[in-house]
Amino acid sequence: MANKPSEIVQMAINTGQYKAKLSFDNYLIRGFMAGLLIAVGGALATVCATGIGIPGIKQLVLGSVFPVGLIAIVLTGMSLFTGDAMLLPISAMHKQITWKRVFYAWTVVYIANFLGSLFWAYLMSVGPFSKGGSAELTAFGANAIAISEAKVNAYVANGGAGWWSAFMKGIACNLLVNMAILLAISSKSMIGKFFGIWFPIMAFVASGFEHSVANMYFIPAGIFCGADVTWGNFLFYNLFPVTIGNIIGGFLFIGVVYYHCFKKELECK
Known about the structure:
Oligomer: single chain
Shape: globular
Distance between the termini: 22 Å
Number of strands: 0
Largest sheet: none
Helix content: over 70%
Number of helices: 12
Structural class: mainly alpha
């Protein structure tokens, strides 16, 4: 059983309104847990893809296991910035919340996601990525460094073109992430929600697109393990352009498009 498209949009509006009314501490905790859960998926992907030398197969493995984080977030009601990049504005467009509240909520959830991701990055760096907590790394730790450096240094080397590449990958990523959110809302069954989330998330990861919250885990995890990446380059050449791209991908390509397509049906109710 599935909800009709107009019902999906209405439920997205209602979800955005609900999230905007959460208390600061409640939203902060939900954001922290969402960052942590995305990091769990990132850590699992790092471990499972270690040692795979065939690029297409490696990307498929990464994409296949990474969705565990978003599945847990959606089904347990936590708050992820990339999803809220669509859910909050679509509620504001329907005049259920103010735009001031949208930007406030985005700020809170973004910081909370970062804290949750950093916590898990540190946990992995002194846990499975190291040999007994020593400075000596496991194969998984070496892979974490490789992922971190690949996500920053190639963009740095290409300057403005690299920044633009990260930005465009951010747009594509959050278009797919928010499609996963809508597909999860569309289904009335647990298994439907699971696969509705899994396929688009697998697609974005396997395609090599960039997710701001996932990168809050991937890149710091590599830095904690000794990657040749500076915090400044991470923020300027990856997190900043990817975040802007994620907002456009979720807000414009999903939120605005679907609200415009079904606005009249919502008004008729």
